[in-house]
Amino acid sequence: MRRSSIFMLIAAVALGLVAVLFARTFLSSSPDTSNTTAAVRTVPTVIASADINFGEKITPEKVKVVDWPAGNLPQGSFQRIEELTMGVGRTAMRPIVANEILTEKSLATGANRLSTAQLLNPQMRAVSVPVNEVSGVAGLIFPGDRVDVFMTRSPDEALPISELLVQGARVLAVGVDMNVGKDKPEVVKAATIEVTPLQAQKIALAQTVGQLSLALRHFSDESRVRLQTAQVMDLNDGTITRLVRKPNSGGGGGGPAAGGAPGAAKPALGPGVVVMRGTEAKFESVIGK
């Protein structure tokens, strides 16, 4: 028994030595995480040192330079404060929060003039649409929102109609306010939206023949729908509409069933109803029924 105990003790010591050697070998072969962190390349980047409001001029005390990972740097950033403050300087085109990277898209060159043209995407146009409290969604449209544009008109040869002109247009300004940080509703006389050249042409024509109105949509809604021209006949839910006619005196006519050859006497229709089925109208007399 004593000899077996000695053998077990020797085996335990040997296993312990093997474990220590294995641990040393494994730790020496593992990568050094401190060296990996130090290998990340950084570049000087200008960020906001405090909140900058829309329309404020960029000054040295409102910005600072920090080291930023080069792989995560947004396009159009700046590396030196002098790029923003020298010469005519730059102005914030939208609210900028503290520690946010300043980019060319968020700034306008010059401090005296904020131009809507700098907000436009390439090959797009800016057009102003007249609005009021109703057509402008009660003043709840703000710069940066997305809207659809409808036209309503009353042609001489037909009943009033409504058509969809533009879908998902970006609002650049309401009135003369381009601040995307605007948070108070305001009823204005015009809204400036971003459209394609063809859409701008259609809107220009539509303003001369009808009335325009805006419909606010969710800012992430990129869907496009196809809507047919809406007419007065389409205002119901698809059921048959019965229009009760006033009784005609004498030979009064002028109803859907009062047609006939020119010069022919028009019969008195009397009391009755006009039955509308789609776009077809049929007069039915109620006399003798």
Question: Quick gist of this model?
Answer:
With 289 residues, this protein is α+β, with helices and mostly antiparallel strands. It is built from 4 helices and 13 strands.
Task: Kindly describe this structure.
The chain has helices at residues 2-29, 33-38, 82-85, 197-209; strands at 42-48, 63-69, 90-92, 107-109, 125-130, 146-153, 161-174, 190-195, 211-217, 230-231, 241-244, 272-277, 280-285. It folds into three domains: 42-114, Type Iii Antifreeze Protein Isoform Hplc 12; 117-231, no CATH class; 236-285, no CATH class. A hairpin with a 7-residue loop joins β6 and β7 (161-174). It is elongated. Strands 5, 6, 7, 8, 9 and 10 form a six-stranded antiparallel β-sheet that branches. The chain has a three-stranded antiparallel β-sheet with strand order 11-12-13, with no helix packed on it. A two-stranded antiparallel sheet has the order 1-2. Residues 250-268 have low confidence and may be disordered. The chain is α+β, with helices and mostly antiparallel strands. The chain is 18% helix and 27% strand.
Largest sheet: 6 strands, antiparallel
- Strand percentage: 25-35%
Uncertain segments: 250-268
Number of helices: 4
What is the approximate shape?
Answer: elongated
Oligomeric organization of the protein chains: single chain
Radius of gyration: 37 Å
Number of spatially distinct domains? 3
Q: Please give the share of residues in helix.
A: 10-25%
Mean pLDDT: 78
Question: Structural class of the helix and strand makeup?
Answer: alpha+beta
How far the N terminus sits from the C terminus, by CA atoms, comes to 124 Å
Query: Strand-and-helix sequence, N→C?
Result: HHEEHEEEEEEHEEEEE
DSSP strand count: 13
